[in-house]
Design a protein that fits this description.
The protein is mostly helical. It contains seven helices and two strands, in the order H-H-H-H-H-H-H-E-E. Strands 1-2 form a two-stranded antiparallel ribbon. Helix 1 packs across helix 2 and helix 1 runs parallel beside helix 3. The radius of gyration is 22 Å and the shape is elongated. The relative contact order is 0.10.
């Protein structure tokens, strides 16, 4: 709209939320994730920073933290991540969400907010403890292969995959040996970092 916000049109088939803080944060996150340069979004970023500073909605804080982390505004991102950390419960979920982009409620709302917070924390290794707790909560929240609604499932899987990727170690050479009741069977088999399959001598 020329003022750093996005005009909302309520004529739609899906009940997407028209709360300006929520919709502006969500749209801006989508833009920066798709590769939009921060320089072309200066008004939008400044508007989001102001809105996030005033917001008590942890969902908005998490979206904004992701936006600022993605656009290299580390101080702004850390301020929001600190606020999110204070909202994290002992079981790992992030409380304080009052509205999501699709109007989720209950467990789905909690999962979406926690997933977004985890994605933001992953951008800074200083928040690894908060990330790990969030991921453990998300893993425990999986029921019958899904995490509540479609939206919460997508965000949870995105956070879990991003966490696994961040925590993975590069492949390196080594050896593999087989132990049965504590006793080595056969000789150790060497492999290099390119190895994806090891054949053992059946004899």
């Amino acid at each position: 709209d020329g003022r750093g916000c996005v005009d909302s049109n309520r004529r739609a088939l899906h009940p997407w939320v028209t709360n300006p803080d929520v919709s502006n944060a969500d749209i801006l996150w989508a833009l920066v994730e798709s590769g939009e340069e921060a320089g072309s979004l200066s008004a939008e970023l400044e508007s989001l920073k102001t809105a996030a500073e005033k917001s008590d909605n942890s969902y908005v804080l998490a979206l904004a933290a992701n936006v600022f982390a993605k656009t290299g505004q580390k101080e702004a991102a850390q301020q929001l991540m600190d606020r999110l950390a204070k909202q994290q419960d002992s079981d790992g979920h992030v409380a304080g969400s009052t509205q999501t982009i699709v109007g989720s409620r209950g467990q789905a709302q909690v999962i979406e907010t926690t997933s977004l917070a985890a994605l933001a924390w992953l951008s800074d290794e200083d928040y690894i403890d908060f990330t790990d707790k969030a991921i453990r909560f998300l893993a425990a929240a999986c029921k019958a292969g899904r995490f509540g609604s479609t939206q919460s499932t997508v965000l949870a899987l995105r956070a879990i995959v991003a966490h696994d990727k961040a925590m993975a170690h590069p492949k390196s050479p080594g050896t593999l040996e087989l132990l049965v009741d504590g006793k080595r069977v056969g000789e150790p088999v060497a492999f290099d970092k390119q190895c994806v399959r090891i054949w053992l001598d059946e004899s």
